[in-house]
Design a protein that fits this description.
Strand content: 25-35%
Largest sheet: 6 strands, mixed
Shape: elongated
Order of helices and strands: EEEHEEHEHHHEHEHEEHHEHHEEHEE
Oligomer: single chain
Number of helices: 12
CATH class of the largest domain: Alpha Beta
Length: about 350
Amino acid sequence: MITASHISKTITLPNGRRINILNDVNFHIERGEVVSIIGPSGSGKSTLLRSLNLLDPPTSGSISVEGEDILASGYPRQRLHQRMGMVFQQFNLFPHLTVLENVMLAPMKVLNIPREEAENLAIEMLRKVSLSERATQMPNTLSGGQQQRTAIARCLAMQPDIILFDEPTSALDPTMVGEVQGVVRLLAQEKMTMLIVTHNMRFAHDIASRTFYMHEGTILEDDTPGKIFNQPQHAETKAFVQRIHKLVFDVENQNFDFYDMMSQIRQYCIRFAIPEQMNTITHIVEEMILLLSAYDNPFHIEVNHGEISGQTSVVILHRGETISPLDKSDVDELAVMIIRGMSKEITTEQTPDGIQLTFTI
């Protein structure tokens, strides 16, 4: 359905320096495939999407969509934009139009669909994204997730064969990410051909039939999500997909800001979409701090979350100690019982710096 051959994109900076954003990119995508595109910032992911729909045409190479060379001289871009829709990070809704009018506009103006037919089509698309009841509202009355779903409905109203998603959830509050991902999953089940640029590794893994890992402007790996995430062939890919988000605290004495620590932990849980684990993490940290406060030794706390593994842990290093605070004779037994009950597993390790406990949540 889409074939890209030797795509390159070069830009020239004001100082005359030339930078290659895309370097000899090649791929073929069949109808109904869902491709997630991952990679570090600046690797060319968004530029690749913009090259495919000619918002930012490549410097060289060829792109064929449904058998037509879209880079050929005189190729009508309007035809491409009817076939290939795009959903951006920002919603770009018209603030002076209702939700329904936003979805109706392009079919009427671009496809020349009569108003009544366009309205029926728009209502159908809003129903698909569960927003038909919001049809008469203005965009500024909607949540971020609802605005992005409206943008998806607007794209669907053009009845495209292909949809490009450029970080569709990056501008959303983490609590709203799931509703947009749910719509994309529905489209995947309906065999819509999609290319999805995302930094959400779990989403990229679960939604796609193929994954591209981009690095320095090229597709370094192209395989199934299972292979890319579990058996990457390149060190760069492995380092990227196995990344673990850490929140670190070093407590030197009893005068630290406990409430700021708890606030940071809560923000961390929201940011990485693990709010259901927030209470467990904060309770374990709080109980452990109470136990450790009976001693003068400093301690180190980490909260770790792996995007793909989904595993969350709390690591506490009690510096200078050789015995776990959970095993000391004068320990608060009720606190220990609470901590053990809230943890899936607790491992203890003697390190050169002290005793380290890892609580798997």
